[in-house]
Design a protein that fits this description.
By secondary structure, the protein is an alpha+beta fold. It has one domain: Glutaredoxin. Helices cover about 50% and strands about 15% of the residues. It has seven helices and four strands, in the order H-E-H-E-H-E-E-H-H-H-H. A four-stranded mixed beta sheet has the order 2-1-3-4, sandwiched between helices. Helix 4 runs antiparallel to helix 5. The chain is globular and about 35 Å long. The termini are close together. The relative contact order is 0.20.
């Protein structure tokens, strides 16, 4: 990806072998009626390039990374920003979430992230996307 693509896109970067993360992408796709989001597995070449662009280690899988017009967001802030552009009722729920203390939301996020493989499992390979979804992957 070049600088202009990053600055003009809304990109969700996620752990491609995490079942919870893959389910979350499917959840977003179904509610992203305007098809504004692009996706990348953190383990892919594009994902590693984006992680580097965000000044994160190439093997960073601790949180979803959401890049909106060149600005990276992490943890609960990323999730709430993503939800704000989905179909109803998610924009309203995200606004409610934004008034809660980020420290509390991030603590909950971190707890789920630490246990996601144990609770939801993982696969050996990144999720296989549908033909329609493939056009939205970097």
């Amino acid at each position: 990806m070049n600088q202009d693509e990053i600055l003009n896109s809304k990109i969700i970067l996620f752990d491609g072998v995490c079942n919870l993360c893959s389910w979350s992408v499917s959840f977003v796709v179904k509610r992203d009626k305007n098809r504004i989001y692009k996706f990348a597995w953190a383990q892919s070449d594009a994902g590693k390039e984006l992680l580097k662009w965000c000044k994160l280690p190439e093997n960073f899988l601790d949180t979803v990374v959401y890049i909106e017009h060149g600005t990276p967001y992490y943890k609960s802030k990323a999730a709430l920003k993503i939800a704000s552009r989905l179909s109803m009722p998610w924009p309203i729920l995200s606004r409610i979430g934004l008034v809660l203390p980020e420290m509390i939301l991030d603590s909950i996020y971190d707890w789920i992230a630490r246990n996601r493989y144990k609770w939801f499992g993982r696969t050996d390979v990144c999720m296989v996307s549908t033909k329609d979804l493939q056009s939205r992957f970097l």
